[in-house]
């Protein structure tokens, strides 16, 4: 009997069926140990010795493997076929050796790119040793990420209060988003005009031709820059006669794209399906690990973390056979198509992502998949089969036409394209993100019959005004594409990188576009000013290339670390000597458009609007950066740092409190004020004064006595619940408007609902929330509730959004997600680890559960440092006065 170790329990169950009774397949549940999240886990002074820690849950699984080894003939390590998989195998073997659980028994490593019976059994016939070069590359990456996180983050916390930790790859990805935002802010729109003529052939068919030259001069796009020039050329075209100079029909071919890599799958799933990168990887993981297809569990796609674009020869043959049967022989190209990647630093060590069998069409597996799984499988199948289909044959027609107005001549051009043979387009066509050019090259339709030298009748001339637009913000898909082009990060890290940036509140996503928060822009500006080299795109890409060379056995991993650490440590030491004023001066210049937005009246945005003499500047407080006046304390103007700050509305409440009248019940003065955290209303004075921040969307200029009294009266009692007899109240919380009943919260759609909702509707909202399961406290969106998969012991594992944040649930076990893990990004394997850890808690005195400390660092390579939680305030905080930096 042999012990086989894989990562996940679902994978273990499937492979156990394939291998039969001669094998015991156990799951490691991902990494069994990691660097403790504390100083000293990587020690440069000891030539980068590393301390590893096995957490409680992993210790139990290692014990299970060690116990199984006592009666086994050998150990087979069958983790994923990439660096992480190689590292997991190495960790398992190293821990077992230290426990003396191996003895002299043989240890082999096997890899398979797909979880199918044939792939697994074939892999078992070709075992190998652990690839130490791949392990070295993993160790180097893990050490680099740790050293950056644990040395750079404390500098951020000291010099930039309110900032969270920084990471090697995440900081560069954040810079891309922030640089694009700065580019948008600097953009100056320019006017341009397009002219076209609607013409009619002698046969009565109309078509449109655009102006391309005038009076012997070729016109480049956007060459006509004002209305005067546009009207002059329009008059030329209006009075001209038109004659066809030439008609050229040119056949062209369009070739299919290669099968998916990790990044192109994430991009396509975003464009076509609206999936986030993390959602794409969750669904792909399930398709890879196996789906029950009529009583047999089988992986439907190959391994989904890859930058390879080529399919295995047998898969190419299968695809060509499927093309012939599904579409016909004409759709099969003469020779198989071979692809190579254009991405920088691509390893191409594994196959592209493809179906494990092209015979399993999306229609055939439809009944076995949920909606998201079917959508993604359909995408993979179609892209895979299209990659081995014939080219599309397109005829592109260009018609050159002369416009003659009394000797003044201009040239107009009409273009059109016709698909003569659809080829691969019959299976798959790309869909681009907003702001990207279409793969189709042009969107021109078919032109009518037009013959050379014939005259055309003018129907009308169109002159349309346009303005240049700034580059679009990145979406998840376009950012991943850019990172891949630059060679930043690796396929397995893209989704985790984006999730980390969101979790740290460095970016937000609005309508699928990535928008940097003020906090994110501050961090980027700080790093660009004082750690320029380490957020440069080329430097990060070069480091990735060195890691690839380590994995190929071409570089010594410790030498790479020595070279990096020497300069990085010197930079850290230099930055420690920085004064806060140096930091603020640099940030004021780097972030000028954000800190000092232009004013409508054209006045100097750096002069205080309240006192008229003070200079505005960034200030650093306990909770982060804000903008304050240099004349403090005489002038206490402050405002939050945001892209839309600095308006007159802000300034109108930034000096002295504005009286809104007396409270009708207490007789105390109600005032409108502004603090570091924005405008708020206050009743009375002193520490016991009641305060309420203005809800999102309520401008200070619109706040009157009635609204202020309503805000200060919250929470509002609505009435007793007819079933429980307990009071239902409405209020405003950190996450928006909510209802409170019997200790549970339910979301309200608008702020106005808080003041107007009646008892009947409140009871209905609470009942609707209860029917959906436990919900989040005051969240602005419905509680997250999705199924990750089944527990090995039976029963579904779900993700829910609870009172204290997102958590995973299995039966009666609830396990809170770590702060660096979002509900969208948690995987089944991670959930199983959390549940096992939670279930393994030991009772403490008094019968309460005593939690086992887990210090397993996040797989993203980001270091964390524990910080004490702040006490929750019993009432809204008053905005503290600005302090001099």
Automatic annotation (TrEMBL):
Its EC number is 5.6.2.1. InterPro entries: Topo_IA, Topo_IA_2, Topo_IA_AS, Topo_IA_cen, Topo_IA_cen_sub1, Topo_IA_cen_sub2, Topo_IA_cen_sub3, Topo_IA_core_domain. Residues 165-170 are annotated as: Interaction with DNA. The record marks 31, 141-142, 145, 157, 305, 504 as: Interaction with DNA. Residues 1-117 form the Toprim domain. Residues 453-472, 646-698, 772-795, 839-885 are annotated as: Disordered. Residues 866-885 have a biased composition (Basic residues). The keyword DNA-binding applies. The active site is at 303 (o-(5'-phospho-dna)-tyrosine intermediate). Residues 662-671 have a biased composition (Basic and acidic residues). GO terms for molecular function: DNA topoisomerase type I (single strand cut, ATP-independent) activity. It catalyses: ATP-independent breakage of single-stranded DNA, followed by passage and rejoining. Residues 131-572 form the Topo IA-type catalytic domain. Monomer. PANTHER family: DNA TOPOISOMERASE (PTHR42785:SF1), DNA TOPOISOMERASE, TYPE IA, CORE (PTHR42785). Releases the supercoiling and torsional tension of DNA, which is introduced during the DNA replication and transcription, by transiently cleaving and rejoining one strand of the DNA duplex. Introduces a single-strand break via transesterification at a target site in duplex DNA. The scissile phosphodiester is attacked by the catalytic tyrosine of the enzyme, resulting in the formation of a DNA-(5'-phosphotyrosyl)-enzyme intermediate and the expulsion of a 3'-OH DNA strand. The free DNA strand then undergoes passage around the unbroken strand, thus removing DNA supercoils. Belongs to the type IA topoisomerase family. NCBIfam families: topA_bact. This is DNA topoisomerase 1. It comes from Shinella oryzae. The gene is topA.
């Amino acid at each position: 009997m042999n012990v086989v170790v894989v990562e996940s329990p679902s994978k273990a169950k499937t492979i156990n069926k394939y291998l039969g009774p001669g094998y015991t397949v156990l799951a490691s549940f991902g990494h069994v140990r990691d660097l403790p999240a504390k100083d000293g886990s990587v020690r440069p002074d000891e030539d980068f010795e590393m301390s590893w820690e096995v957490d409680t849950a992993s210790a139990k699984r290692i014990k299970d493997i060690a116990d199984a080894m006592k009666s086994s003939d050998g150990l087979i390590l069958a983790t994923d076929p990439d660096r992480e998989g190689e590292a997991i195998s190495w960790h398992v073997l190293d821990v077992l050796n230290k426990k003396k659980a191996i003895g002299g028994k043989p240890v082999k490593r096997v890899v398979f790119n797909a979880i199918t019976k044939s792939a697994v059994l074939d892999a078992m016939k070709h075992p190998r040793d652990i690839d130490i070069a791949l392990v070295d590359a993993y160790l180097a990456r893990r050490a680099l990420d740790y050293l950056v996180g644990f040395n750079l983050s404390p500098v951020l916390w000291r010099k930039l209060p309110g900032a969270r930790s920084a990471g090697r790859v995440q900081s560069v990805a954040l810079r891309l988003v922030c640089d694009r935002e700065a580019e948008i802010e600097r953009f100056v729109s320019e006017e341009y005009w397009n002219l076209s003529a609607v013409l009619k052939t002698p046969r009565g068919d109309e078509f449109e031709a655009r102006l391309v030259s005038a009076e012997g001069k070729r016109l480049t796009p956007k060459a006509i820059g004002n209305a005067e020039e546009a009207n002059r050329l329009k008059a030329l075209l209006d009075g001209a006669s038109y004659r066809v100079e030439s008609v050229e029909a040119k056949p062209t071919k369009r070739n299919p794209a290669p099968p998916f890599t990790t990044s192109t799958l994430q991009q396509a799933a975003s464009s076509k399906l609206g999936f986030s990168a993390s959602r794409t990887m969750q669904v792909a993981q399930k398709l890879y690990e196996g789906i029950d297809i009529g009583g047999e569990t089988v992986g439907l796609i190959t391994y989904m973390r890859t930058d390879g674009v080529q399919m295995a020869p047998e898969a190419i043959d299968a695809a060509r056979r499927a093309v012939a049967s599904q579409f016909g022989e004409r759709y099969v190209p003469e020779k198989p198509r071979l692809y190579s990647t254009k991405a920088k630093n691509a390893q191409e060590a594994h196959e592209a992502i493809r179906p494990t069998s092209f015979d399993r069409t999306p229609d055939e597996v439809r009944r076995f998949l949920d909606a998201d799984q079917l959508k993604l499988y359909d995408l993979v199948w179609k892209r895979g089969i299209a990659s081995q289909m014939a080219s599309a044959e397109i005829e592109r027609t260009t018609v050159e036409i002369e416009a003659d107005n009394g000797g003044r001549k201009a040239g107009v051009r009409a273009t059109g394209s016709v698909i003569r043979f659809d080829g691969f387009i019959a299976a798959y066509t790309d869909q681009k993100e907003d702001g990207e050019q279409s793969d189709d090259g042009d969107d021109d339709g078919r032109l009518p019959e037009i013959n050379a030298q014939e005259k055309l009748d003018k129907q009308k001339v169109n002159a349309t005004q346009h303005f240049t637009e700034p580059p679009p913000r990145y979406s998840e898909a376009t950012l991943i594409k850019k990172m891949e082009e630059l060679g930043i990060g690796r396929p397995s890290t893209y989704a985790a990188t984006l999730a980390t940036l969101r979790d740290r509140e460095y970016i937000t996503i609005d309508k699928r576009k990535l928008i940097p928060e003020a906090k994110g822009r501050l961090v980027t500006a700080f790093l660009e000013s004082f750690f320029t080299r380490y957020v440069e795109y080329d430097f990060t890409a070069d480091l990735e290339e060195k890691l690839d060379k380590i994995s190929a056995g071409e570089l010594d991993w410790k030498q790479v670390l020595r070279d990096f650490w020497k300069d990085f440590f010197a930079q850290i030491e230099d930055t420690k000597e920085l004064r806060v004023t140096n930091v603020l001066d640099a940030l004021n210049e780097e972030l000028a458009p954000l800190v000092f937005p232009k004013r409508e009246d054209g006045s100097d945005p750096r002069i205080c609007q309240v006192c008229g003499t003070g200079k505005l500047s960034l200030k650093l407080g306990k909770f982060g950066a804000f903008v304050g006046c240099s004349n403090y304390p005489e002038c206490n103007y402050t405002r939050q740092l945001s892209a839309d700050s600095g308006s007159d509305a802000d300034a109108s409440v930034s000096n002295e409190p504005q009286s809104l009248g007396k409270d009708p019940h207490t007789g105390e003065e109600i005032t409108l004020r502004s603090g570091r955290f924005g405008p708020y209303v206050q009743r009375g004075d002193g520490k016991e004064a009641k305060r309420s921040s203005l809800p999102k969307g309520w401008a200070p200029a619109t706040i009157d006595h009635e609204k202020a009294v309503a805000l200060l009266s919250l929470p509002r009692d609505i009435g007793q619940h007819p079933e429980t007899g307990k009071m239902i109240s409405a209020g405003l919380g950190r996450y928006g408007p909510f209802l409170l009943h019997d200790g549970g919260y339910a979301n309200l759609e608008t702020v106005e609902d808080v003041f107007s909702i009646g008892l009947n509707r409140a009871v209905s909202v609470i009942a609707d929330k209860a029917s959906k399961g436990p919900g989040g406290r005051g969240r602005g969106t419905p509680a997250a509730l999705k199924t990750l998969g089944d527990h090995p012991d039976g029963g579904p594992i779900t993700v829910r959004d609870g009172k204290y944040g997102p958590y995973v649930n299995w039966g009666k076990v609830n396990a809170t997600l770590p702060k660096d893990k979002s509900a969208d990004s948690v995987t089944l394997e991670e959930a199983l680890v959390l549940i096992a850890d939670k279930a393994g808690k030991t009772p403490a005195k008094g019968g309460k559960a005593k939690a086992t400390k887990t210090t397993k660092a996040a797989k993203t390579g980001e270091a964390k440092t524990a910080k004490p939680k702040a006490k929750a305030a019993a009432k809204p905080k008053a905005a503290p006065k600005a302090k001099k930096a």
